[in-house]
Amino acid sequence: MKKLMGLLALALIMILAACSSDEASSSANESEAPAADAVPQDLAFGSATVGGFWYTLSAGMADKMAPLYPDSSVTIVEGGSVSNLLGLDKGTFALGFANGQTVPEALEGKNAFKEPVENVSTVATLYPNVFHMVVREDSDIHSLEDLKGKTVSPGIAGYSGELAFQDMLEVAGMSYDDLGGIEYIGTADGADLLRDGHIDAIVGMVAAPLSTFEELDTTVGIRLLPLEDDMVASLNEMNEGYLPYTIEGGTYSNITEDINTVAGYTVLLVNNDLMGEDSVYELTKMIFENQEHWTTLSTIMNDFSPEYSVENNVGNLHPGAEKYYKEVGALE
């Protein structure tokens, strides 16, 4: 299943790249900006796997984008932070989500990025994407160190959740060699494996609360493993995109204690060669005018506003987004 998912996603990316190559080629080979109202006919949206909030939110945004861009069709691609940024850079995706700690690495050409990603801009900073370490309530695992000898799903290989997990293992003086096994699989399928006892833990950077984990909490029962303060400090020193975060008790109905962890903001970005200034302005406006709708999808969006987005901005703002923020007084 995991291999099939990866092959299907790869095949879709290649197809989308081929379809969009004619639209992107002229702008990619020239320094001229696209037309102000430019929008590709095939609007590929780099998201994440089914079961995560990125997928839910991208589906909701796609519905709202249909009347905004009537001559375009939105295709949601199950990507991840790193692959979305790479897809945006190549013009495979017109827009996509990324984690805040990954964006600076992309812009600087560090770690997973062999070269700087230069032709992407930020539309909005949406909400904190929170690192979770989830185990069954009846598990004997109570800390990161207790994962020694256990089977863990870090999501899809190479995605930001796995990279964050590897950073934590490094800080703890551990590696995958200390674990009992790694299961690369999407969030929803990982939850099924945890429920059935086929894996011992799921880790990843997701919304809090996440509906997939809420369902696990009310059926089999789960616990969240906390990070020690020195671990949080070390991660922030390693990458300033890792921010201290507390999952408050009650976020998941059966977990009453506060959980110490880290988070990175979820950012919506666009490809500068494919999306024109006016088109991005309309996209930005639509996103904020539907803020109440996003909160019905998850309470993680409760604080989302133009002011919140500007205050927590990650990356370089697109001129179209900047125009909107100035219009509403969120940016001088």
Automatic annotation (TrEMBL):
Gene3D superfamilies: Periplasmic binding protein-like II (3.40.190.10)
InterPro entries for this protein: TRAP_TAXI
Keyword Signal on entry: yes
PROSITE patterns membership: PROKAR_LIPOPROTEIN
Key word Transit peptide present: no
Pfam families: NMT1_3
Family annotation (SUPFAM superfamilies): Periplasmic binding protein-like II
Signal peptide: 1-24
Keywords for this protein: Signal
CDD domains: PBP2_TAXI_TRAP
Protein name in UniProt: TAXI family TRAP transporter solute-binding subunit
Originating organism: Planococcus salinus
